[in-house]
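Q: For a teaching session next week I want to show students how multiple molecules come together into a single three-dimensional assembly. I've collected the sequence lines for a complex. Could you give me the predicted structure tokens for the whole thing so I can convert them for display?
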Amino acid sequence: DQQVKQNSPSLSVQEGRISILNCDYTNSMFDYFLWYKKYPAEGPTFLISISSIKDKNEDGRFTVFLNKSAKHLSLHIVPSQPGDSAVYFCAARTRGSNYKLTFGKGTLLTVNP
Amino acid sequence: DGGITQSPKYLFRKEGQNVTLSCEQNLNHDAMYWYRQDPGQGLRLIYYSQIVNDFQKGDIAEGYSVSREKKESFPLTVTSAQKNPTAFYLCASSTPGTGSALRYGYTFGSGTRLTVV
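A: Of course. Below is the structure for the complete assembly, covering every listed component.
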């Protein structure tokens, strides 16, 4: 049973427009959510995170929104740039589990010039 | 610079052979992890270790073994019992999940692509 779901395998956006990547979760015990970016043949790199006690966190062009009642979070990238083209993974930590993250399957974002 | 080093970047193995993937970190992180990535499958946890000389199975541990004799090192052995070992393997590390460490989650290595020939 997949606890972190990224239902869109891919997303294509024009340069300068907004990219919105979505993530749904089923486990109410998740208390921290993170987004990672991954280029082919490389390890994922941390992008942005949000605690479950917040509903928004912003860092430059990246904003993560959390809707706890809907068990949904989204990553907004504004404006999108060609260098943002990568696979984006949503991950979640279970409350009380200091170490273990659960990852979604990822969404491939392509930003077209 | 601190980071995680995985070696080799590419590895070829004959069927029936065991092979060991290296993972070394100089971040002074307590916890280390091994993940496997397959197309369309995302990241799946193989093993993780919270402290030296201790490790736990993840979601797909069958056919794999690990050791954690040093804080800096967490090698993964892919044994002949692993039915489908061809994949991209990622090692990661983290400090205990509080404060700034939790905000940044894991630090990943650059991965090892294992191919069975």
